[in-house]
Amino acid sequence: MIHLLYIANEEGSRIWHFVHPKIREDILEKIAGKDHAAIANLCYALATFGYETLGTNLQVVVFENAKMIFRYIKIEEDKTYLAIAVVDLMDQPSTVWRKISSFIKRYKDDLMFLERISQEPIPIEEVERTKLKLRREFITILDKSVRKFSILGRRDSKNLVAALIISLVFYFIMVGITYWIYKFTPIGSEMSSFAGVVFFLDFLLPAIFIGWITGYWKGGIINGLIVMIIALMVLASIWWDALVAISSSLLGLPSQALLAGILIASSILGGTMGLLAAATAWILVETRTLVPP
User: Fold this and answer.
1) Among 86-100, 114-128, 215-229, whose mean pLDDT is lowest?
2) H helices of the chain, where?
3) Sheet with 59-62: strands ordered across
4) Which of 1, 182, 184, 284 is the least crowded, having the fewest Cβ atoms under 10 Å away?
C-alpha cells in the first residue's frame, strides 16, 4: 500500500501529492506532519544534495509502522523529478518504485503542466481538473496492484493461517488424486511413471500452489514446511501398522526409530518445499503486488 506520494522538481518544490483515502492517522500526522510540512522540508533538504549527488539510487528509510522510499527519476534529457513515497512495511521497495516510475512517465505532461503554476497564471479549474485526473489514475493503478482477496495479500499472521488452511486442503486433494491414479489407472503399476506422478502431484504442484496462495516468501517457507510435516505425519498414522511391519522385517528398526526417520524426512522435504514455495511467492506475487489497505 502506498500511503503517501510526493512528486517535486529538482529545486524541491512540490508539484503534486497523493494521500491514500484509507491512510492511518498516525502515519499522516507523524510522518507527513501538519500540512505535509515534514515531507516538504525533506524535499528541500534532498534538493540541496541534488540529482548529481544522489543519482538514481533507490533510498529506503524504515520507520516503526511504515517505510519511506525516495529517488530521482529522469523524465527528459534535462529534467528530473524527485519522488518520495511512504509505504507499508511489507511492500517491496523495487515493486513500489516500478508503479511510481510508470505513473510518472505516463503522466509526465500533466505533472509538467502543474509545475508551470508557479511560473505563469493558469485557470484554477484546469489545475483542479488535472489534479483530480492524476489522483483517479493513481488510485486505479493501486487497485490493480493488490490481490483480489485482501486477507491473502496482507503478509501477516492472518494471511499465513488462511493460506495454510487452503494449502492443507489442496495438498490432501492432490494425495487423493494420486491414490486414485495408483488404484484405478495403468500408471499405478508402472513404478517409474508413478514416481513422476507422485513428484508432480504431491511435491512440485503443491509447492507452487503454497507459494502462490501465501503470497510472500517468508510465509511460503513456513507454510511449505508445516504442510509437508502435517501431511506426512497424517499419512504415516494412517499406514502406521504397515510401516512398522515393513521397517521391522526389512530393516529391524523399532517403531521409535521409524517415527524419528519420518520426522527427519518430513523436515527435509518440508524445507525443500518451503524454499520452492518461497521462490514462487517472490516471483509470482511479492514482486508484482502491493499490500492492500
Assistant:
1) 114-128
2) 25-27, 37-54, 93-106, 108-115, 124-144, 157-184, 191-199, 205-214, 217-238, 240-246, 255-281
3) 14-19, 2-8, 79-87, 67-76, 59-62
4) 184
Q: Cα separation of 212 and 234, whole Å?
A: 24
Residue 27 CA to residue 44 CA, distance in Å, equals 21
Domains (range + CATH), the chain: 2-144 (3.30.450.50), 150-286 (no CATH)
| Cα(68)–Cα(31) distance, integer angstroms | 9
Q: Which residues contact 22 (CB under 8 A, 6 or more apart)?
A: 1, 293
- One-letter amino acid of 150: S
Mean pLDDT in residue range 67-75:
92
**Residue 73 forms beta bridges with which residues?**
81
- In tens, the pLDDT along 176-198 reads 999 899 888 888 778 788 889 98
Local structure of residue 2 (DSSP, 8 states): E
Q: What is the mean pLDDT of residues 93-122?
A: 91
CA distances from 26 to 29, 66, 73, 267, 282 (A): 5, 10, 29, 42, 30
For helices 93-106 and 108-115, what crossing angle results, to 10°? 70
What is the b/e burial string over 130-150, where b = at least 16 CB atoms within 10 angstroms of the residue's CB? beeebeeebeeebeebbbeee
Q: Burial, 123: exposed, middle or buried (Cβ in 10 Å; 0-12, 13-18, 19+)? A: exposed
Give the H/E segment covering residue 151: none
